[in-house]
Amino acid sequence: MGPEIIFLLIAAVGCFILYMLPTWLAHYYERKNLVGIAILNICLGWTLLGWVGALVWSVIEDKPQEPLPQPSAPPKVEDDTPPPEDTASSQGEIPDLIQKLHDLMQSGVLTEEEFQLKKTELLNSIGSEQSNETLVLSDPIIEKPNPN
């Protein structure tokens, strides 16, 4: 073995070390993208641009991965209405409420339209079958005068 062959072997090993430097740096700094850096280094490292790109990619710090935002619960809407009561107790209170509304209408605080609207809401809260029966029973009977 002549000195020329030894020189060529040392030069080849030195060039290989220099060529693979970006990959070894990425391994040393424990980069997440080690495989990508190695592929870029091996495939495009022969171009100066590919080697410099792999080198820069291997020495820049990985950005800390921020945790994904957790889906937030829909905002709670505060409701001032009281919770629904049992239907048995509310059915007993509805005629009293209708009577109070009727008294307010008679005293002029409520109009006929407001009274009918509130009465219908109360009756609908009982249930469709019972509200129809109650509606018929609770409506005041208005007699039309005879034209005779």
Walkthrough of the structure:
The structure is a single chain. The protein has 148 residues and is an all-alpha fold. The protein has two domains: 3-59, no CATH class; 87-138. 64% of the residues lie in helices and 0% in strands. The chain has seven helices and no strands. It has helices at residues 3-19, 21-28, 34-44, 48-59, 87-107, 112-126, 128-138. α2 packs parallel to α4, α3 (34-44) packs antiparallel against α4 (48-59) and α6 (112-126) runs antiparallel to α7 (128-138). The radius of gyration is 44 Å and the shape is rod-shaped.
SSE order and pairing:
Elements: H1 3-19, H2 21-28, H3 34-44, H4 48-59, H5 87-107, H6 112-126, H7 128-138
Described by strand count, sense and barrel closure, the largest sheet is: none
Helix content: 55-70%
The total number of structural domains is 2
SS content category: mainly alpha
Strand content: under 5%
- Kindly state the number of beta strands: 0
The geometry reads as: rod-shaped
Mean pLDDT, all residues? 79
Query: What is the terminal-to-terminal distance?
Result: 143 Å
Instruction: Write down the oligomeric state.
Output: single chain
What Rg do the Cα atoms give?
A: 44 Å
Uncertain spans: 131-137
Compressed to H and E, one letter per element, the order equals HHHHHHH
Number of H/I helices = 7
